[in-house]
Amino acid sequence: MTIRSFNPPPRSLMGPGPADVHPRVLAALARPTIGHLDPAFVGMMDELKTLLRQTFRTQNALTMPVSAPGSAGMELCFVNLVEPGDEVVVCINGVFGGRMKENVERAGGKPIVVQGTWGRAVDPEQVESALRQHPKARILAFVHAETSTGVSSDAKALAAIARQHDCLTIVDTVTSLGGSPVEVDAWGLDAVYSGSQKCLSCTPGLAPVTFSERSLEKVRDRKSKVQSWFLDLNLVMGYWSGEQKRTYHHTAPVNALYALHESLVMLSEEGLEQAWQRHRHHHLALRAGLEALGLELMVPESERLPQLNSVSVPAGVDEAALRARLLSRYNLEIGAGLGDLAGKIWRIGLMGYSSRPANILLCISAFASELGAMGHNTDASAAISAARALLDQDADCR
């Protein structure tokens, strides 16, 4: 067998991630590779930190991209902040809250689970009750934007409760950063991680993180070594801190960092608040089209993520078969449900460069055609008209 160069098929990525990568970001990947300690590269690293602070809305000195995907950003937070025996309150209302619990256990901590309902936001009253019942807990961990369900929880309210109980917060913003408000300083968040492949319009493989000074004090005061050498903040800080001088820790993914830099420059050019508005506006247009097809969104409106839409599968429709048809006939990727929601929902992403009118109209017309072929009564013309009516309301979001 002769193996030749791989040329991927063209796809429109409207699943839970990765999202479409902007052509400017793809072009940045092709720029000449230089050394990861080259003065020019070190200068670019400083710019990356500045751009990430703007995106996280923070002044935290330790704000950087981890040289690994969002899951490593999650693990970085837990292995540095959780020591053996620590009690950690973990909110679970989807798959990724469950992964937080797993990280607490692997770090030797004792997870105290606040079990929520899949498809609903974390309940602040349940969190308050758990922290009252476990006064030794010093960390509250929760997912701001639960990718498995499309739910947004009230990070500001949860962080306020944590502060009242002298707890640090570990917060997952993998799906929210760049697509909906994330206010690290204003909300008082402590250890926050994200991913490059969603609302930032970048390639997978990097995990932006930011740490408050309060959280770094806990890292410095550890009584035991961090269990991971690669993710030990005491070592990583030496590479990302300082002015024009870095202590060698690892060979950074140079070209991937070019790509993240370019994506953040683009986000700055658009304006962060304008990007939030674009995602919200396009969500409303997609919702209008889907509802005109007789489809329902699972999450209550006040708790929905605009960039990740969970759509209930109608009775009698084979959800996996429909996804397969969308991929083979339209080169359109959407996501399936996970865990308790497997087979019950589709997850349609409107993240970063994927959040644009052409994708919305493609998705609605493809759904209309394939649902009709499966015997579901649809009116494609009405659905497209409903979406266009919303899209035409705000030319700045097109």
Automatic annotation (TrEMBL):
GO molecular function ontology, one term from the record: alanine-glyoxylate transaminase activity
Span of domain Aminotransferase class V: 42-337
Gene3D superfamilies cross-referenced by the UniProt entry: Aspartate Aminotransferase, domain 1, Type I PLP-dependent aspartate aminotransferase-like (Major domain)
InterPro entries associated with the record: Aminotrans_V_dom, Aminotrans_V_PyrdxlP_BS, PyrdxlP-dep_Trfase, PyrdxlP-dep_Trfase_major, PyrdxlP-dep_Trfase_small, SP_NH2Trfase/AEP_transaminase
PROSITE patterns named among the record's database cross-references: AA_TRANSFER_CLASS_5
GO BP field: glycine biosynthetic process, by transamination of glyoxylate
Pfam families named in the record: Aminotran_5 (PF00266)
Key words of the record: Aminotransferase, Pyridoxal phosphate, Transferase
Residues binding substrate: 347
Residue list for modification N6-(pyridoxal phosphate)lysine: 198
Cofactor: pyridoxal 5'-phosphate
Family, as annotated: Belongs to the class-V pyridoxal-phosphate-dependent aminotransferase family.
Protein name: Alanine--glyoxylate aminotransferase family protein
